[in-house]
Amino acid sequence: GAVVSQHPSRVICKSGTSVKIECRSLDFQATTMFWYRQFPKKSLMLMATSNEGSKATYEQGVEKDKFLINHASLTLSTLTVTSAHPEDSSFYICSAARDTNSYEQYFGPGTRLTVT
Amino acid sequence: KQEVTQIPAALSVPEGENLVLNCSFTDSAIYNLQWFRQDPGKGLTSLLLIQSSQREQTSGRLNASLDKSSGRSTLYIAASQPGDSATYLCAGTDSWGKLQFGAGTQVVVTP
Prior knowledge:
Largest sheet of chain B: 6 strands, mixed
Number of strands of chain A: 11
Low-confidence stretches of chain A: none
Mean pLDDT of chain B: 93
Mean pLDDT of chain A: 92
Largest interface: A-B, 24 and 24 residues
Number of helices of chain A: 0
Helix content of chain A: under 10%
Largest sheet of chain A: 7 strands, mixed
Structural class of chain A: mainly beta
Oligomer: heterodimer
Shape of chain A: globular
Helix content of chain B: under 10%
Radius of gyration of chain B: 13 Å
Strand content of chain B: over 45%
Distance between the termini of chain A: 37 Å
Number of helices of chain B: 0
Strand content of chain A: over 45%
């Protein structure tokens, strides 16, 4: 159990366009979902935390108008990169937590975004 | 703010040797500590989770220890195999449920 999927796995888009990435918990209800960004050969950087039905909480330095997060249900969160630029190219990974007692997070397979 | 450091950054060993990966953290008030494996271009696979009240966890050839007083965790991988080649990440969870990751240790096990 505890499977998290992401779609798409890879996306290439042109500068100025918007891209939506979906994160789904397939076999459990996620109380909280997290979005991370990973640069090449670097560790994961937390971008934002989202709870179903409420606004996401963004980490310092992350532009909330740039990275729109919608947590529409207990199994789905979406990240939309608006007006994408080449510097937004990165590996985006989501995770989902189902248990507020253990805080264990289950990670999706990631989405490789390339902005040309 | 919690800072997590992993040493060494890279490690290469011949098959069969034991691996020792180190993780240190600055804030001892962590809720739990997790070890993950990441293959190139892939997401994270959870290996072990140690609750703050625990001192170690074991799964097969993997054993992870946690010493909150010294701010350290160690991941041991016994009898390494080429399939163990990957990047290993440790992360501490704070009381808000947020994970703070180390930069990882890139492991190469040569046949």
